Write a sequence for this structure.
C-alpha cells in the first residue's frame, strides 16, 4: 500500500469509529429520556422520584459533555495528523541534536504534553463544574495540582528508563527485538502490580485498617470459609476527592488486598459490606485478576509484534507526514492507529468482563448464603453514585464492563433460588 492509501484507510476507519461511538451515545441519550418518568421496578423501594430525576439529569449532562469532548478530541487529533504537525515537531526537536534515543523520548513527551493540555479544560470542567453541580466533587485545586505533579514525576521516573531500554532493543537486538521488549515490559507490568498497593497508591491516598472490630471478625470468618488469604482489608480516603463509592481488589501474592472507599463503609451496613467483599474475593478465587493479566500480556506481545512489522515499512510513516522511519514515530503512530483498527473488538472485551462479574456475584451469593447483601449494596451504590439505571442495551453491551444492576440482581436471585 502507498502512504496515501494507508492514510485514506486510517481516515475511513477513524470516521467509522467516531460515527459509531456518537450513534451509541445518541441512542443511549434518547433511551434514558424515554424512560425518564418511570423508575425501573427493581429500584422502586430504594430510589425516590427526586433522586431518580437527579440521576437522569446527571446521566444526560455527562452524555452531552462526553459527546462534546469526544468531538473536540477527534478534531484535534485529525488536525495534528493532517496539518503535518507530527513531522514538524520531530524536525524541530532534531535541531537540538540530542541523540537518537533522547530525541525519541523528548518527542514522545512533547506530544503527550500537547494532548494532555488540549484535554485539560475538559477534565477541569468535568471535576469542578459537573461533579460539583451534582454534589460529588471534593477535589481542591491544590490537590488537583499535587496529583498532577506526582503523576508526572512517576511517569518520568518509570517511563524514561523503559523507553531507553526499548529503543536499545529496537536498535541492537535484530528482527526479534520485539520479543526482548515484550519480556522487559511484561516484567515491568508484573512488578507494578506488586509494588502499586504498598508504594504507589499511598502517595495519593491514605489507607487505614477497618475500624469496626465486629465487622472485621465477620470478614475474617468469611475469608477463612472460602480459603482466602490477604494482606489486609483496607479503607481508602476516597472522600477527599469525590463522594462516589466503590471497592476494588489489587496486588498479587503477599501484596493482595481488598480496598473499600470510606464513602462505601460509611453508607453501607455490615451485610452489604460482606456482600461486596465476597464479590471481590470471588474475582481472586476465580482467577479473574490473573486471567486479565494474561490477556493483557498477550495483547502487549501482539502490539510489539505489529510494531516490528511496521518499523521498516516506509509508506506507513509517509502516510502521516514523516519522510523516514524512526523508533519513536513507530510507537506514536501505532498508538494513534490501534483504536480505529481494533475498536470493533470492544464488545468482546466487555462481554468477557461481564462474564467475570456474573461469576463473582454467584461466588458472593454462595459464600454469604444469600443474595441480599450484595443486592442491597448494588442498589445503594446505584443511588449514591446517581448511576444510569436505564442504559440502552446496545450501549451497555458495547461499553459496560459490568452488567447493569438490574441484570446482576436478576441473575443473583435466580442463582440463590437454585441453591
Amino acid at each position: 500500500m502507498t502512504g496515501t492509501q494507508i492514510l485514506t484507510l486510517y481516515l475511513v476507519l477513524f470516521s467509522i469509529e467516531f460515527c459509531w461511538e456518537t450513534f451509541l451515545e445518541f441512542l443511549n441519550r434518547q433511551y434514558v429520556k424515554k424512560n425518564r418518568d418511570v423508575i425501573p421496578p427493581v429500584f422502586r423501594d430504594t430510589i425516590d422520584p427526586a433522586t431518580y430525576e437527579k440521576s437522569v439529569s446527571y446521566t444526560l449532562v455527562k452524555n452531552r459533555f462526553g459527546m462534546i469532548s469526544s468531538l473536540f478530541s477527534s478534531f484535534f487529533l485529525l488536525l495534528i495528523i493532517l496539518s503535518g504537525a507530527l513531522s514538524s515537531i520531530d524536525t524541530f526537536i532534531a535541531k537540538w541534536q540530542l541523540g537518537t534515543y533522547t530525541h525519541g523520548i523528548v518527542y514522545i513527551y512533547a506530544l503527550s504534553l500537547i494532548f494532555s493540555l488540549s484535554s485539560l479544560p475538559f477534565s477541569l470542567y468535568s471535576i469542578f463544574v459537573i461533579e460539583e453541580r451534582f454534589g460529588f466533587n471534593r477535589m481542591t485545586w491544590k490537590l488537583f495540582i499535587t496529583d498532577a505533579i506526582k503523576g508526572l514525576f512517576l511517569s518520568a521516573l518509570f517511563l524514561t528508563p523503559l523507553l531507553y531500554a526499548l529503543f536499545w532493543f529496537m536498535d541492537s537486538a535484530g528482527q526479534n527485538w520485539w520479543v526482548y521488549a515484550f519480556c522487559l515490559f511484561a516484567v515491568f507490568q508484573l512488578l507494578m502490580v506488586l509494588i502499586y498497593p504498598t508504594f504507589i497508591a499511598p502517595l495519593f491516598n491514605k489507607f487505614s485498617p477497618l475500624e469496626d472490630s465486629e465487622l472485621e471478625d465477620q470478614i475474617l470468618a468469611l475469608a477463612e470459609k472460602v480459603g482466602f488469604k490477604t494482606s489486609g482489608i483496607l479503607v481508602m480516603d476516597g472522600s477527599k476527592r469525590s463522594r462516589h463509592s466503590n471497592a476494588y481488589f489489587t496486588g498479587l501474592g503477599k501484596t493482595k488486598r481488598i480496598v473499600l472507599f470510606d464513602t462505601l463503609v460509611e453508607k453501607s451496613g455490615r451485610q452489604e459490606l460482606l456482600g461486596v467483599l465476597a464479590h471481590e474475593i470471588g474475582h481472586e478465587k476465580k482467577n479473574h485478576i490473573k486471567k486479565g493479566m494474561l490477556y493483557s500480556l498477550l495483547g502487549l506481545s501482539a502490539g510489539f509484534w505489529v510494531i516490528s512489522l511496521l518499523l521498516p515499512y516506509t509508506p506507513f510513516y509517509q502516510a502521516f507526514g514523516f519522510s523516514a522511519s524512526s523508533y519513536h514515530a513507530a510507537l506514536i503512530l501505532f498508538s494513534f492507529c490501534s483504536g480505529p483498527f481494533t475498536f470493533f473488538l470492544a464488545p468482546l472485551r466487555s462481554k468477557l468482563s461481564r462474564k467475570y462479574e456474573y461469576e463473582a456475584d454467584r461466588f458472593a451469593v454462595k459464600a454469604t448464603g444469600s443474595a441480599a447483601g450484595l443486592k442491597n449494596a448494588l442498589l445503594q451504590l446505584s443511588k449514591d453514585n446517581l448511576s444510569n439505571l436505564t442504559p440502552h442495551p446496545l450501549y451497555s453491551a458495547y461499553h459496560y464492563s459490568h452488567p447493569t444492576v438490574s441484570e446482576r440482581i436478576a441473575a443473583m436471585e435466580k442463582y440463590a433460588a437454585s441453591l
User: Anything to note?
Assistant: Strands lie at 207-209, 233-236, 247-250, 257-261.
